Prior knowledge:
The chain is of the alpha/beta class.
Amino acid sequence: MDTISLPDRPKASKAKKEKPPKQSKGARAPKPKRAEPAKPGTDDPQSMFKVGFLSDVYQGISIESGAIENVVTRPNGFLHIGHSKAIAMNFGFAKQHGGESFLRYDDTNPKGEEEQYFIAIEEMVKWIGFEPKRITYSSDNFERLYALAEALVEKNRAYVCHCTRPEIVAQRGGGEGEGGPRHACPHRDRPITESLAEFRAMRDGKYEAGEAALRMKQNLDDGNPQMWDLFAYRIPDKEHRRHHRTGDKWTIYPTYDFIHCLVR
Length: 264
């Protein structure tokens, strides 16, 4: 077999070093200028509230000195780095402008809520450097929230829905017809007395999880999905109904969508 002979790899030519020009006697090379010491940066932990969008927020709204900042968290896990930012912004904003902060536990979903998370969250807030004026729990308001839900039904602004999850998705234009027209739940226009009786049946344990839920009457024609008859009360699975603070008293629990504007 004939072999192919490759040409020798070319050798890199060595560049001749140029000698620096001789300096004339008596001439000295200029000394390099000494670098100016760096000016110390501004170490102001409150600067985030004095400039930027948080300053614009304060300038754009009327806040009285001593106002309350409500910091909400769900006690179903340990805090992560994102929570520390939210804590610093919310507690810090109130402190910067002479206000006070409440730490509210949104303990409306017994599934996953444990005492260790309540304790760890409070300890983390204090470790970051803030002291809540008061610690509150959504569960302290369960009786009042239930009464408000009944009042909403009586005003014909809520109804008990028995639709399955796929049916609700279809009502919102999803499923096979994703992005399609929306339509109302068939139970939306049931009589007020019927919805009220069904809601009380939910409370009394007649239904299992997924068999009934209280939905708010909103605006299905609105382009915002948060207006498509959101849930106000739901039934958890039996193994997740026992509440850390209220025990076995309740078989139904309010949703965050229902209570977030009602509880402080």
